[in-house]
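Quick one, T. Sequence first:
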Amino acid sequence: MARSRLTPERESELYGAVLDLLGEVGYDALTMDAVAARTHSSKATLYRQWGSKPELVAKALRHNKPAGLDEIDTGTLRGDFQAILERTDDCQMEKDSALMRGLAHAVHTNPDLLQALRELFIDPEMRGFDVVLRRAVERGEVSAGNPALKLVPHMLIGAFIARPLIEDQPVDNDFLRAYVDAVVLPSLGA
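Structure tokens:
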């Protein structure tokens, strides 16, 4: 697909509008018509650039993430987790958490969304986590046979989902730092 027509600034603007609309109306009510109207572009342009609504949403989420996790290497696993958390402020984390809760519901009735999210958003994040964790194993911080290694993403996603449900509080950096120190690192033996 030809992407050369869009400047990086215009692409960022489009992705921002998609995420804003997603937060406002949810995935099911999000339409390419609404994105086109919000961004003053044509629906044909959107389809030519992204092919489908699921692909557009997944790429908007991916674009919103800072550089890959695999680029973080502080020399310790705890330091890497702290660096990962510092990449997002509390306000953005609350918005991301709300978007993720909405999308978690939408994937149940939209298999094409689940596939796009896996390919364009989830799999790259998981590969980044794998690199961070592999480095910890290579440094001797975590045993290669530790069964918790495969469960780190589940633990972190659980924290994002559980805190609002259990405490009626948003997920923020202080909570996640405490969670990593009390749950994630001990489970890894680090």
